Structures are given as structure tokens and as C-alpha cells.
Amino acid sequence: xxxxxxxxxxxxxxxxxxxxxxxxxxxxxxxxxxxxxxxxxxxxxxxxxxxxxxxxxxxxxxxxxxxxxxxxxxxxxxxxxxxxxxxxxxxxxxxxxxxxxxxxxxxxxxxxxxxxxxxxxxxxxxxxxxxxxxxxxxxxxxxxxxxxxxxxxxxxxxxxxxxxxxxxxxxxxxxxxxxxxxxxxxxxxxxxxxxxxxxxxxxxxxxxxxxxxxxxxxxxxxxxxxxxxxxxxxxxxxxxxxxxxxxxxxxxxxxxxxxxxxxxxxxxxxxxxxxxxxxxxxxxxxxxxxxxxxxxxxxxxxxxx
Length: 305
Hints:
Layout: E1 3-10, E2 16-24, E3 27-35, E4 42-48, H1 69-78, E5 83-87, H2 105-121, E6 125-133, H3 135-146, E7 151-155, H4 162-171, H5 176-190, H6 205-208, H7 213-220, H8 224-228, E8 235-240, H9 248-257, E9 262-266, H10 285-295
Parallel strand pairs: 4-5, 4-6, 6-7, 7-8, 8-9
Antiparallel strand pairs: 1-2, 2-3, 3-5
Helix pairs in contact: 2-3, 4-5
């Protein structure tokens, strides 16, 4: 696997955005490497997107308007002399052609490791950090178990197996009949057994379509709290109080599983890492300050006597 620079775009800030690619056995992945100018080596953050058709900038084909949360985070970090790499997952945006029908969460973990390995080999970077959002939190945590990184950041990451999270979201929105059907489907997937579409109510098909069930089975096997508990490096857990998809209880479960991890609860921040539902609103400023301080702790000066 390799990263190859293709296009250089000058931002309004002094940082340069390089269009980069990762060659894999089943296709090419595309991303943006944002590098601020610096004479010394830099910290670099791999930003891993959440579930569904979410692209490198944090935008989903399922949303009515783009929110650009990952791009905003990357640009905010660049302004503070921290590099970052965002990428389109396989099957999404520029990486659409890399989709494979047998894709599982292991495929996405392998992709994240590929990007991390290339960043680790780049002499410009002295500190390697993985920051995963939502489902990307679990992918980043597992990737950090399998190759050396220096820091891990969980942004709105679930603290329970994905099957439990999906059920809790369904139970808050759907009819009793669909909730009952969903419980049976999740139980079957937890046991590693797929459910034919003829047994999946139409109202749940967008979640449990038979073609995507092998991916769900692979995802449901992991308990994020168990995985984060295995990390022996600095960990930051960030959760917003206005998040309607992942809860503070999830963040607490992650924190309790890794007692040396830092936990930051941000009042008013939603799942898109912002303080408002308006997609044009900026990234949460407390989030940026928290992440920056975690990556580059302030220098403590000795008092002069």
C-alpha cells in the first residue's frame, strides 16, 4: 500500500491540502492530507468517518445538507500546527469504486491501518494520532491495538456493541411491532445467522437489508468498552450532551473501561460535533481546544523564585 500525492490546493490558511491515494488489493482509496507549514516535525491525526455513506468531510448522502464537520476539524487543527488526513471510505464518494460485496468491519480496520502505516513512515510526522467519530471510534480503537500509534481520540463513540445501539435507537422511534421484529433480527445477527429479506419488515429494510447483514454481523461482534480497555496509550473520550445517537452513558462506559483515559463531556454539542443543527455552524470550539490540548499539552513552566 502507498500514499501518492496528486493535487495540491492552497487553503485560505497557510496549510496545504494534498489529494492523496491509498492503493489496496481491491481498489484505490482517496483522501485529503492537510499539512501546516512547519520547520519541525508535526503531529498528524487520522480522522475516521462514522457509519453509512459518510465522506471524508463528514457529509452523508442521507443528509439534506452538508455539515463539513471533519473538514472543519481538520482546518481548525491545521491553524494550530497539527496535520490531519481525512479519507473517503471504500464505497463512498471518490472511493466508491473500491467497494467490495464481501466487505466487513475488518476491511475498514485494515484500511485505517494502511493509512496509519503510511503516515508513520512519513518523516514529516513525529506523533501519530487516530481520531474516530461514531462507528469510526471503534475502528480507530481496534486499529490502534494492531499497530503502534501515540494517541487515540474517540469522538461520539458508542460504548456498547452496535446491535445494542441500533436497538436503542429503534426503540425510541418505531412501532412496537417493528421493535419486536428488530429485536429478533439483532438476536439472529448476534448469533452469526443472517435473516432473509422476506423476514425483514419493509420499515426496517434500510437498516437490516440482507445484503448488508454480513457487515452487521462482523460489527456486532465487537464491544467498544472491551476494546478500549486494552489500550495502553493516552486516550481521549469526547461526548456531547445534545447528541441524539450516542449518549453520555456510552462515554461513561468507555471511560470506566479505561480508567486512565481522559473524558470530556461538552454541553450542547451534537453528534455532528457542533452546537447547533444548522449545518453551516462552526465546529465546537471546546472540542477543538480539548483535542489540541490532548495532542500537544501546554508546556508547564517552572516558577521563578
